[in-house]
Amino acid sequence: KVQDIVDVNEYYKELEKYLSCVKTKIDFKPDVAIVLGSGLNKLAKKINVKETISYSDIDGFPISTNKMHAGAFIFGYLGDVPVVAMNGRIHYYEGYSMNQVVSPIRLMKLMGAKKLILSNAAGGISDNLNVGDLMMITDHISSFVPSPLIGPNIDELGTRFPDMTSIYDSEICKKIKNIARENNIDLKAGVYLQTTGPNYETPAEINMYKLLGADAVGMSTVCEAIAAVHCGFKVCGISCITNKAAGITGEPLSDEEVDVAASKASDKFCLLIEELVKRI
Ligand code: HPA
């Protein structure tokens, strides 16, 4: 059901309905929430799963239409840590409102999660980013997508004008760097820019994004990070660079290329996140 929910009370009630629906299926309080982007789907196999709930089994919940993504919450343990993982995220380009796109993030907060690990596949803009690299997100540019906070503020979740000075938690970022160093993972760091998608960018757009300070580009994550900070999550994010951004090599981009590169980087990506969950 692709529709815009504008009434703030209705929207919050909808979130509470999702929560009670989840609670009828499992009594579980996650500590860490993880959004599994391309390349991280394999992490699902490392989770000691207690329950899986398809988005389609939650009444009214947005459903991911992307063929690559299963569209389910996975509840379980990574080591001793109770986690909820989103296997498949909702993208703005699917036609959902921004509110709907970030509903799963807010729901995971209402479930009790305190920390959020975001992941994605991204195109590398910066010269020092190569296919297969992992890039820790240090900051982002949201200027090309609508804010998920537009509309009446949902006071139950957070304040009207949330600060965005340090979205990506510096303590968590330190841990990510340490884990990478200890495991000989060549970790890059940089600024991620979100576009609406679903089309890839033009070379002229990539030139512009580079001038604006973006290191990597993709079609997700930023709106989720904003909503997450708004509702009080500690946030971090990692991109898997699956291709050089449009125009850099001159070759056309394809989702096959993205998927192949994401699969290849999958092992180190999973290792990094698995370790992070234990230390976060
Ligand atoms: N652009 C946008 N989104 C992406 C890209 C890209 O080059 N690679 C993977 N996701």
Short synopsis of the structure:
By secondary structure, the chain is of the alpha/beta class. The chain has helices at about 10-25, 100-110, 170-180, 205-210, 220-230, 255-280, and strands spanning about 30-35, 50-55, 70-80, 80-85, 115-125, 135-140, 185-195, 215-220, 235-245.
Could you explain the architecture of this structure?
This protein has 280 residues and is an alpha/beta fold. It has helices at residues 8-25, 98-111, 170-182, 203-212, 222-230, 255-279, and strands at 32-36, 48-54, 72-78, 81-87, 115-124, 134-141, 187-194, 216-218, 234-244. It has a 5-stranded mixed beta barrel with strand order 5-8-7-6-9. The chain starts with 7 loop residues before the first helix and ends with a helix. Hypoxanthine is lined by residues 121-123, 200-201, 217-219, 242-243, 245, 253, 258.
Structural class: alpha/beta
The low-confidence runs, each spanning 5 or more residues with pLDDT under 50, are none
Could you report the average pLDDT, rounded to the nearest whole number? 94
Cα separation of the termini = 36 Å
What is the helix fraction of residues, given as a range?
25-40%
Order of strands, widest sheet: 5-8-7-6-9
Work out the number of β strands. Answer: 9
- Please report the number of helical segments: 6
Q: Give the distinct bound molecules.
A: hypoxanthine
Instruction: State the major sheet.
Output: 5 strands, mixed, barrel
Q: Determine Rg (CA atoms, Å).
A: 18 Å
**In sequence order, what are the helices and strands, one letter per element?**
HEEEEHEEHEHEHEH
What is the strand content?
A: 15-25%
Shape: globular
